[in-house]
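Take a minute with the sequence and fold tokens given here and flag any structure token that looks odd. Thanks in advance.
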Amino acid sequence: MYERIENWLNTVLAKPFPKKVVAVGFNLYEDDENEWSMEVVGASRFDPQDDDWLCEEVTDFDTREDPLAWTKAAEWDEVHREVAAHLKKYLQNGLYADKLRKLKGVAVGFVDGDLEIL
């Protein structure tokens, strides 16, 4: 799964970030039973004490129309843990990790759920 996330992120993050983006969130969705997807959202604000910072969306990097989608028989919390671990790995070694590390914040979470700051 890491390679799929890495390849997808390399495509998404290759484009320049809008200047107003100060933080990025990876939104996870359960689309159907065992069907999951992820989009990337750039926000103009970051506040680790307020999960609503991601609502200050500047861009979705065209990932809303083209999310990363996969099938896995798992509960939502397992999917969250696995994706968070892969994103942390990308933040360490990924091709565009430096673009993410320069931001005020990077987080992952299910839409309408709590965010985990990475």
Observations:
- The two ends are 18 Å apart (CA to CA).
